[in-house]
Amino acid sequence: MPMAAAASQLRGPPCSPSTKASQVIALMSSPRGMDMIAASGGESAAVTKHAMSSSFTFAIQHLDLSMNCLLGPNGHIPQFLGSMENLRYLNLSGMTFTGRVPSQLGNLTKLQHLDLGKGYYCGMYSTDITWLTKLPLLQYLSMNTINLSRIADWPHTLNMVPSLRVINLAECSLDTASQSLPYLNLTKLEKLDLSENNLDHSIASCWFWKVTSLKYLSLSVNQLFGKLPDVLGNMTSLKVLDLSDNNLNKTGNLKNLLINLCHLEILDLSHNSMNGDILVLMEGLQCAPEKLQELHLSDNEFMGTLPNVVGEFGSLNILDMCNNNLVGLIPLGLWNLVRLTHLDLSMNHLHGNVPTEIGALTALTYLVIFSNNLTGSIPAELGKLKHLTILSLRDNKITGPIPPEVMHLTSLTTLDLSSNLLNGSVPNELGYLKNMVGLDLSNNHLSGVITEEHFANLKSLKGISLSSNSLKIVVDSDWRSLFRLQNADFESCQIGPNFPAWLQQLRGITKLDISSTGLEGKFPDWFWYTFSQTLHLDISNNQISGSLPAHLDGIALETLSLTSNRLTGSIPSLLANITALDISNNNFSGIIPSNFEASQLELLIVYSNRIVGSIPESICKLQQLFYLDLSNNFLEGEIPHCFDIQKLQCLVLSNNSLSGKFPAFLQNNTNMEFLDLAWNKLSGRLPTWIGDLRNLGFVLLSHNAFSDNIPVGITTLKYLQYLDLSSNNFSGAVPWHLSNLTFMTKVNMDFAEMYGVMGYSLIVMEPGLFGDIFSVVTKGQQLVYGKTLADFVSIDLSSNSLTGEIPGDITSLVALMNLNLSSNKLSGQIPNMIGAMKSLVSVDLSRNMLSGEIPSSLSSLASLEALNMSYNNLFGRIPSGRQLDTLNSDNPSVMYIGNSGLCGPPLHNSCSGNGTSTHGDLGSSKQEFDPLTFHFGLVLGLVAGLWIVFCALLFQRTWRIAFFRFFDEAYDQVYVLVVVKWARFAKNTTAE
Questions:
Q1: Residue-wise DSSP of 55-81
Q2: Do the domains spanning 1-174 and 649-926 agree at the CATH topology level?
Q3: Which member of 144, 548, 620, 823 lies 3.0 to 4.6 Å from 642 by CB, making a disulfide possible if both were Cys?
Q4: What is the membrane topology noted in the UniProt record heading this document (predicted)?
């Protein structure tokens, strides 16, 4: 094929008409954007063929087409490139080629530099790279993003190209680098990049550890594990070592591995699970104190105090130790690192003040020390860091006012001082921060007034959070802002009672939170128009009245929270784009709209309103719904049978008048985690398949009319932590095998570990269900706990007709906090090992037919706050000691009344005789029947008695004569009696 014709296969940006024949052709595009040449309608122009003669293409030695959108036939790399025999440099990186890499590139025998990587569509692949062995002069090879997953022996092929100095194979879908090479030819190799592959094996098994010529080694973003090999210490030429984002939790002796790497400039061990003393690691780097420029150790488990020796690394530009277990003070030596531009000590356990010496780090552009235990005030010396662009001290215990000097850092783009104990007012100098993009002062003790002066020059501001303070925002009605906010959080700031006019300037904002801001009255006419393009809007916890527009057409809202206001009227038609809607705790009335068009709705919360009617069957269209709460309304009728939403995780329909059976549609919904149907009129028996809902953690079915036995399958729910079946008509025994309730058998079980983050990421938003206060009712008493429901572990089977004994294995539920079996017909004894249930806070076994003594181990329950054993058939001495002596101090006897056999304090009837002592715990002595002791005493008594008789007969002759005479007479009488009886029996038998 003629060269001109071949070159015409490339389609894309036209060359300049002034281009002349040359040994170098460069059509590099700007890396910021591909020259798509779409201005003329989107069609690619043909490459000009003005000089593509055979002699021209033959002479080309350097061809750089990187970052262009030239296309070959069918989008592939054109094969004719393999005919350009004089090419020494070929760069096709960042182009839009797809398909197989042509093996014809192996004809370029003079090639020294080949870059095919970073394809724009990442659509290239190769199943054979043996053509590389035909390039004897190749020094630079980059095939980043080319899929090489089907090439198992790629190291052997590369080993046959000994001239290679650089190998870049990042994002090539390689699954192993553990091949064994019989000999090593890559003695000139200086750079090896295998990052972002699928390497999943021991890091020590990799083939390249003997390549001591390496200066750059990157294995980041793989799944390598195990201990670093000792031969790492022999790679003394290394300047860059990047092992980040792996699973290297076995660090071995890091000090010995690093001690000889004297040329190291960049060390990145971040995002692993490495541990050990940080001092040992720093000592291992002592060989390169003036060489090391970047040290990345974030997201590991290094511990100990950050040593003062860190100040000896005078060339450090970046020091990142985020998310470790470092403790102690920030060392003074740190402030000697005057070249430092990036410092991140966040998410550790550092304490003490932010030292005033921090002002010496004048080169800093990034300072992040959030999520520690820092105290004291913000040093004014921070104002000396004129180049600082990002400053975050959030989530500490810093006190005092915000120093005005911080507001003179005019280069700041991000300032985050949230979640501290700051007080005073916000300095007016805030308005000096002309480059500020994000500002977060939330969750402090700030007070005072925010005026337009604070916003004077904030022309770059995109996000602001002033929530959870005591601030008041007052600006003139004619004030015009210079910025265009995208996110604003004014929660708990005082901006009411009227809707301020300045809110109209927030048109186009993406996210706005004006909850708990003291707003009253109706929505102004301009409100819904102003925020028609807003995606996330929270106006909850105000005193807003009136009704919503009947139609919210043209509004782009995705999440809307109006909870806890005074809104009335009917529920409007749902927005087409809505994903989360919370209108709970208002006065909405009427029926639930039947025209559900919100196909993306995931969360719908309507509890505590005045909604009537039935649940419309059209709700079944909401196939993305995973959280539905219609509780505390006036709904009636049956739950729709078509209600088959597979993603549903939380269903709350309690406190209505719903009737019918247990919802059959739940049978196939294995994602269900929270089910609350309490306080309705549901009846029938619970299905046996409830045990198949393997993710159920909360089951609340109280105050219905369910009957028959409690299905045994419910004990197979290993995530179950809250079970309330009280006030129904259940009969039969308490289910056995309670020890299968795994969650309840493990104290301090991590909630996120059991359920994962997604399941309750939005559930915790609902204050009515997962609030700060949670009530547990025992008979005659209501306990209010300062715990969220997500942390509470409970079983309540009270007010049913259960019979039989309390299962003994219930004592294995050591995480159980509330046990209520009251008002049933249970018999037998209280399990003796109840004292092993150390987490119990409330125990109610009243109004049953329990007998026996109250176990003395009950006094071991140190967390117990409520106890009710009344109205049973219990007897014996009442246990005492420890926590039991503090319960119900006003009238402790009510815990035990109705048991005529009980005695001792706090009852007035005293115990007679040898009353049992009930002090102590599980190891205390028990006044109960002991078979071993009984038999031992019986044998001992018989032996002693026989010896007494024997001795008496031996030494008293008259006793001996009397004894044997008595024995003879007794024998004669017994003999006569037996003979007579036998004769009569024989006579009667013969007569019959």
A1: HHHHH--EEE-TT---B-GGGSPPGGG
A2: yes
A3: 620
A4: Single-pass type I membrane protein
Distances (CA, A) of 379 to 401, 415, 422, 667: 10, 15, 13, 61
What lies within 8 Å, CB to CB, of 982 at 6+ separation is none
Selection from 82, 71, 141, 144 nearest residue 108 by Cα? 82
- Which residue type occupies 896? Y
Half-sphere exposure of residue 607: CA atoms within 13 angstroms, side-chain side: 18
CB atoms within 10 A of CB 723: 24
Q: Which residues contact 551 (CB under 8 A, 6 or more apart)?
A: 572, 573
What homologous superfamily is domain 649-926 in, according to CATH?
Answer: Ribonuclease Inhibitor (3.80.10.10)
Terminal CA-CA length for the chain: 131
Q: What is the pLDDT of residue 957?
A: 58
Residues in the chain: 992
- How many whole angstroms separate alpha carbon 425 and alpha carbon 466? 12
Spatial distance between the Cα atoms of 124 and 324, rounded to a whole number of angstroms: 40
CA Rg, the chain, in Å? 41
Q: Which DSSP symbol is given to 494?
A: B
If you write DSSP's letter for every residue of 108-145 in order, what string do you get?
-TT--EEE--S-SS-EEE-S--GGGGG-TT--EEE-TT
Beta bridge partners of 544: 521
| Amino acid letter for position 582 | D
Joined tokens for residue 619: 């709700």
What is the distance between the alpha carbons of residues 456 and 466, in angstroms, rounded to a whole number? Answer: 17
Side-chain half-sphere exposure of 965, counting CA atoms within 13 A: 6
Structure token digits, residue 675: 């089910």
Question: What pLDDT, on a 0 to 100 scale, did the predictor assign at position 955?
Answer: 59
Positive or negative CA dihedral for 456, 457, 460, 466?
negative
The CATH number given to 1-174 is 3.80.10
CB atoms within 10 A of CB 576: 15
Give the Cβ contact number of residue 986 at 10 Å.
10
Residues 6+ apart with CB under 8 A from 196: 170, 171, 220, 221, 222
Q: Which residues contact 298 (CB under 8 A, 6 or more apart)?
A: 270, 271, 320, 321, 322, 323, 324, 344
Residue 665 CA to residue 643 CA, distance in Å, equals: 6
Alpha-carbon distance 437 to 561, whole Å? 26
| DSSP secondary structure letters along 889-937 | TT-GGGGTTT-TEEESTTSSSPPPSSPPP--S-TTS---S--HHHHHHH
Domain edges within the chain: 1-174, 649-926, 953-992
10-residue mean pLDDT series, the chain (992 residues): 45 41 55 33 36 62 87 80 93 90 95 87 88 97 96 96 98 94 95 97 95 97 94 95 92 85 97 93 90 97 94 96 97 94 98 95 97 97 97 98 96 98 96 96 97 92 97 89 91 95 92 97 94 96 93 86 96 87 96 83 95 92 92 96 84 97 91 96 96 95 97 95 97 94 81 39 36 40 50 94 96 96 97 94 96 94 94 94 82 92 90 52 39 58 62 60 58 54 57 51
Long-range contacts of 474-483 (CB under 8 A, 24+ apart): 474/449, 474/450, 475/450, 475/451, 475/500, 475/502, 476/452, 477/501, 477/502, 479/452, 479/505, 480/505, 481/455, 481/505, 482/455, 482/456, 482/457, 482/458, 483/455, 483/458, 483/459
Please classify residue 4 by burial: count the beta carbons closer than 10 Å to its beta carbon, then call 0-12 exposed, 13-18 middle and 19+ buried: middle
- pLDDT value of position 184: 94
Residues 441 and 391: their CA atoms lie apart, in Å, by: 12
What are the tokens at 472?
């008041």
Q: Which of 471, 407, 470 lies closest to 439 in space, CA to CA?
A: 407
Residues 142, 167: Cα–Cα separation, whole Å: 6
